[in-house]
Amino acid sequence: MAEIIVLGAGLVGSVIAKDLAKDHKVSVVDKSKEQLEKINHLNTICCDISNTEYLNNIISKFDLVIGAVPGFMGYKMMLDVINAKKNIVDISFFPEDPFKLDKIAKQKGVIAIMDCGVAPGMGNIILGHHNLSMQINNYECLVGGLPERREWPYEYQAVFSPIDVIEEYIRPARFVQNSKIITKEALSDTELIQFEEIGSLESWNSDGLRTLINTMSHIPNMIEKTLRYPGTVEYLKVLKATGFFSYEEVQVNNLKIRPIDLTSKLLFPKWEMKPGDRDFTVMRIIIEGKEKNQDITYKYELLDRYHNNTISMARTTGYTCSAVANLIIEKKYKKTGISPPEYLGEHFEYVNKYLKKRGVNYKKSII
Description:
The protein is of the alpha/beta class and 367 residues long. The protein contains 12 helices and 18 strands. The strands form 4 sheets. Strands 3-2-1-4-5-6-17 form a 7-stranded parallel sheet, sandwiched between helices.
């Protein structure tokens, strides 16, 4: 039994904590008393871990740290944890280059696994798994988390902080085509894609490949696209063009504010998952290439729904993270430095088995 601390008591962090608490001694820290009060039977600590000194004091006695803070806090949080010489598994999906922390993590002897969710996360692990035995030519990942009830005006709910979701709408989308990195605006190249049980969803370019662009640079074609209900892209483009997602301050009366802060504040109650709300996560991965000198195409499909009072996006993200946490605790993964999830390809069966036990099933087929 290990002692684990989860940084962040949000919808995903709390699910990770409860899952790991089945086999380990788990504590949860958050600056929100309201969030901590929702977590029963676990030790909770109310503290602002953006303060490095506070963070160091809190994590000092723990064997492993789980990072489940908003993306804008993620990079500094991970740096602080590495400097404290603590192993960490992180789901904050921060925008900064994680490999800038690789050297110091190796110097400190720290295992730091990042982006350990569903996509990025399990999708990367699947690709890393096939990369061990295939010459891959094409990788495509379509993924989205959506409410079961389509409710005007947004037909969307979020388990992450609104500002992190908005990042998907404004960060330039990179993908790889014929071994060249292509950059387009987020929300571009909209397509309607059909899914069994769900119907048509709208896909669009987002910057979801992240580390794969560098770590899998030998693959000539790679793309990830986000899925939403049809019609979503149009209103997002309007909000974006009007400036609601801008980080540039504007003056309103005698105050200077960033539009994105106001937008996040307004959207949070609109996007918040409320008691009784249900969601689903849908993902389709296509991997094409050669295996044993034969052309082959693998397809992975995920359709996960709200289950046992746990929202799907928290299940699919959180259980991937807790599976990887157990890999470190069991000393099955020992690589120091920064590890994106594609480095865990050889542990695909372990993670997949862990997810199946919790009802998260990736259906694999050859097409």
